[in-house]
Amino acid sequence: MTKGNINVSVENIFPLIKKFLYSDHEIFLRELISNATDATLKLKHLTSIGEAKVEYGNPKLEVKIDKENKTLHIIDQGIGMTGEEVEKYINQVAFSGAEEFLEKYKDSAKDSGIIGHFGLGFYSAFMVAEKVEILTKSYKDEPAVRWICDGSPEFTLEETADKTERGTEIILHIAEDSVEFLEEGKIRELLLKYNKFMPVPIKFGTKTHTLPLPEDAPEDSVAETEEVDNIINNPTPAWTIAPSELTNEDYMKFYHELYPMQFEEPLFNIHLNVDYPFNLTGILFFPKLSNNLNIEKDKIQLYQNQVFVTDEVKGIVPDFLMLLRGVIDSPDIPLNVSRSYLQADGAVKKISSYITKKVADKMSSLINENREDYEKKWNDIKVVIEYGIVTEEKFAEKADKFTLYPTTDGKYFLWNELEEKIKLNQTDKDGNLVVLYASNADEQHSYIQSAKDKGYEVLLLDSPIIPHVIQKLETSKEKISFVRVDADHINNLIKKDEPII
């Protein structure tokens, strides 16, 4: 048996971990499951290149609660560790990582601007545990070992016969002030929040599965049941699958998996997939928006390698696309940084530009493929596009290809079509193209009728940000002006000669 000190110079690290991010203690489970997943995927890699001479099989993680002993167990069937590796990775590498993390963030522990709080790793266990045990057996032919630490810098490390299967089990002896983490409901909530789409199956208890009856079974037959593993996650979410392998039904199913309380189907989706100059995958959904600008509910979720990070994606996703729903997953987004730093980060700027371009390209292809369908959807998507025109220059440059201008009689024009349609009749004496519009067809009915009687087209522009859109169009296009149809007498709206009163 080995006894030793982790690092005497920082005796205060455990109290620091305890109080660090007090409201965010729940991240310990995400960190430990991320480690267990990494250990499993490392084994997969080593077996695939022939370095680990073991059967990879179909490994899973397991999370178990033992209420009687007040312990929480996280078990993997991954690479495992030898005694030497525990000494190195737990007592040195993981510890110095935690130390560095705390040093960097102890002053900003309450800074909710830090995204995700990744990096505390294994030592986050001490946020909720008074004692932590590691039972681990390496894929190499070496004895299993047990490491124990009670939150002081002292640890013990010894060989053990208690573990015969390859992999690692972390046992958390839950502290008195953290007993909520012995509740099944709480652990399920955290697993679904952070680990719903982890790439390795996670077992959390069992469930009863009803077996199908044979076709010739009598009517009064009772189906047999069996207890099966309750796998709480979906290891292959839609964004990790090539778009060519997904049907529209697959996308809809995934949308409802992300947002179980959303009963309305999204209008369409955009599948993101790029690996140079940065890695990014994801799926964005256009929900029906109409004029609703409420973006507080069912937001876009940011993942890193299938681990949930946050749904506060401002600065990564351009503002105008915050109205969309979906997932983006990128290992290239720095997570332990403040939001102001994030917005200045080069990789993040590129990601934001890429997403903007993909949305513009999708709009162009939708209108080209089925103009009639696009026109039907216009009222539900116009807020996003108009917001993009106002706030995102690169998007505004492409927007003429897919921005529609509806008239009060239900026709839809692209900008070049509108120009062509009205230039003869609606050019004033100074050569300016005058675009007439109404904001409410019912209230402005008589003005609209007067304009129509003169052969003018009247647009119906009724979204909340139209004044900003008009300002943008008037400054970016030459010799055009927008005039509201009730701004003056009809004879004065498009000045052909001297005004007539």
Structure, described:
- With 501 residues, this protein is α+β, with helices and mostly antiparallel strands.
- It folds into three domains: 2-207, Heat Shock Protein 90, CATH 3.30.565.10; 240-390, Ribosomal Protein S5, domain 2; 404-493, Rossmann fold (3-Layer(aba) Sandwich), CATH 3.40.50.
- 33% of the residues lie in helices and 21% in strands.
- The chain has 13 helices and 19 strands.
- The chain has helices spanning 13-19, 27-48, 83-105, 184-194, 248-258, 339-344, 346-369, 371-391, 393-398, 415-422, 445-453, 466-476, 490-493, and strands at 2-5, 61-66, 71-76, 129-137, 145-149, 154-159, 167-174, 202-210, 225-231, 268-274, 280-286, 301-304, 307-310, 325-329, 405-406, 412-413, 433-438, 458-460, 480-484.
- It has a nine-stranded mixed β-sheet, covered by helices on one side.
- Helix 7 (346-369) runs antiparallel to helix 8 and helix 8 packs across helix 12 (466-476).
- The longest helix has 24 residues, at 346-369.
- The protein starts with a strand and ends in an 8-residue tail after the last helix.
- 34% of the residues are buried.
- Mean pLDDT is 86; it is low at 109-115.
